[in-house]
């Protein structure tokens, strides 16, 4: 959305602060032995206790309030009592909440216990790729500048940049125009407008970029089985710069 009023800007900020806080809460819950279904229940309660509504639940029939994507799962992992975190795993938690009609959306990849240096690096580079991207984000730029920076940075480490899923505009709806790809050409893409809200979300694979969708119709996994990380923030582009609403 392009926030036209002060009320829109305040609403987007509040919704996204709830998502940010839910992710900080999620981080405190993660440990070997907890199931992704337990995480879902606790985080759902957190969102509701904060006066918001979990936006994922029921979205296109999605059955839970969070996405919990372990190791080779890229995104949209469905929480399950059977999926129990163990030492050395990485888990991407994606959370969406609606507050007074405004949407917040963000994701992080967390380590479970002690993880390998390779997985640590993947998490760090995925996060940094977001920041490399937003260095280029300003009113009047083309989104291709951001997309290209994310891709160039991640690929310089030999990682695969997922193309089948992209970031998005966000506002009264979770998914709005424009699409925000994590790959592309500098001089291409939509021109960014003042007060545009975007969810920017690199999904980076340790191996090849290719993914497929499992039989449950949701879970996206890497084709080669290598681990994947996800880092997402909702941002607002103002005339003074970029405000990251979920940090
Ligand atoms: N947060 C995600 C996104 O940015 C995905 C939500 S998937 C859902 O698109 F279906 F579970 F909502
Ligand atoms: Co998103």
Describe the structure.
The strands form four sheets. The protein has a five-stranded antiparallel sheet. Strands 1, 2, 4 and 5 form a four-stranded antiparallel sheet that branches. The protein has a single domain (6-244), classed as Creatinase/methionine aminopeptidase superfamily (Creatine Amidinohydrolase). The radius of gyration is 17 Å and the shape is globular. By secondary structure, it is of the alpha+beta class. Helix 1 packs antiparallel against helix 2 (36-49) and helix 3 (117-134) packs antiparallel against helix 4. Helices cover 28% and strands 27% of the residues. The protein starts with 5 loop residues before the first helix and ends with a strand. The model has no long low-confidence stretch (mean pLDDT 98). 2-amino-4-trifluoromethylsulfanyl-butyric acid binds at residues 56, 59-60, 62, 67, 76, 94, 96, 105, 199, 201.
The helical percent reads 25-40%
First CA to last CA: what distance? 19 Å
* CATH domain topology: Creatine Amidinohydrolase
User: Which segments are poorly predicted (pLDDT under 50) over 5 or more consecutive residues?
Assistant: none
How many helices? The count is: 4
Q: What name goes with the CATH superfamily?
A: Creatinase/methionine aminopeptidase superfamily
| Total beta strands | 15
């Amino acid at each position: 959305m392009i926030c036209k009023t002060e009320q829109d800007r305040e609403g987007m900020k509040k919704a996204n602060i709830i998502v940010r806080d839910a992710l900080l809460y999620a981080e405190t819950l993660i440990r070997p032995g907890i199931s992704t279904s337990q995480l879902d229940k606790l985080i759902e309660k957190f969102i509701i206790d904060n006066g918001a509504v979990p936006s994922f639940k029921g979205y296109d029939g999605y059955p839970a309030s969070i996405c919990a994507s372990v190791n080779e799962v890229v995104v949209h992992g469905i929480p399950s009592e059977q999926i129990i975190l163990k030492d050395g795993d990485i888990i991407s938690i994606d959370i969406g909440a609606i507050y007074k009609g405004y949407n917040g959306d963000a994701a992080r990849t967390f380590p479970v216990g002690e993880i390998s240096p390779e997985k640590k690096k993947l998490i760090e580079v995925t996060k940094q790729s977001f920041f490399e991207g937003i260095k280029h984000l300003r009113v009047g730029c083309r989104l291709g500048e951001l997309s290209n920076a994310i891709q160039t940075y991640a690929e310089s480490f030999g990682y695969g940049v997922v193309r089948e899923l992209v970031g998005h505009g966000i506002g009264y709806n979770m998914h709005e125009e424009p699409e925000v790809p994590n790959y592309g050409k500098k001089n291409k893409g939509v021109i960014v407008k003042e007060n545009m809200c975007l969810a920017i979300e690199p999904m980076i694979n340790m191996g090849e970029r290719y993914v497929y969708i499992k039989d449950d119709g949701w879970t996206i996994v890497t084709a080669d089985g290598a681990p994947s990380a996800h880092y997402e923030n909702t941002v607002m582009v103002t005339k003074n710069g970029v405000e990251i609403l979920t940090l």
